[in-house]
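Researcher: I need the complex structure. Ligand is guanosine-5'-diphosphate. Inputs:
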Amino acid sequence: MFGGGKELEESLTRTRRSFFGRIGELLTGGELDDSVWDDLEELLIKADVGVNTTVELVQAVRSQAAARGFTSPTQVEEALQSRLLSVLGAASDVPDPGEGLWVILVVGVNGSGKTTSIAKLGSLHQRRGRKVLLAAADTFRAAAADQLKVWATRLGTDVVAHQPGSDPGAVVYDALEAARARGVDTLIVDTAGRLHTQYNLMQELRKIHRVVKKQMEEAPHETVLVLDASTGQNALSQAEYFKEAVDVNGVFLAKLDGTAKGGIVFAIASELNIPIRYVGTGEGIDDIAEFDPERYVAGLFKDSSDN
Ligand code: GDP
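Model: Output:
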């Protein structure tokens, strides 16, 4: 999608092969009877679309099929695709940074792929000609700042970091000052990602959010929650916690390439109402795709390189 990075379609391979690409097989048996609809439901649930969202989708397609007298599998598949697309709907616009300092707060549990995703966002902004600065506001985990520095070196950018255990609010304060002083266009803030059940973590995120707001009223411009696609439905409960603490306005779905649970985007969009903005398509710095609902849904059913 962006020079060198892995393509979205490629990262959907597992989900496509295990689930969505098989829908056609369910429908080729002839009659659209109960068992076909049951099988479709089962397949969508296994792909992590989520029970509620699946039931709604299948009911909608089923009534459409009855009302219009669908006879061919293609008609059912097309109806399903258009329903899937409407679930994702407008819930996916990536905000345009434009002129001036753009602040991105990145939250998520440890291991979700947060640090890698920060580097990918940095690279994405650099490729747009923006000057990027990183802030290591995860002061709880000693290795966090070091890990961020490794990526920063690759990006050829700086990290604002304090000693482990210091006040993350102070890191953010300094980072904003530095960003302004150095004419930075995009400041990306890493935050602690200890277990989401910890009350302290949520308090800390709220505080970081307040510190940012106090210095720059319109910031953070993006609060991105990194979710590991391979955790499937667990990602939803994590998202609920983070949503309560900070105003999450976008999801970065990491590790999509390593899972067949790509149906999770529909559960995120319909049950959490948080737009999916970015997708992680591999371990490399350029393995990021901006979320495009049409391309995503099409990629679930057919690889553009398939014949
Ligand atoms: P953090 O603890 O949340 O900061 O997670 P890291 O950024 O350290 O990532 C954890 C692991 O996930 C590392 O091995 C990364 O290479 C890997 N990872 C992160 N994003 C992706 C992705 O989009 N695809 C794949 N395949 N691996 C990823």
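Model: Summary of the prediction. The chain has a mean pLDDT of 92.
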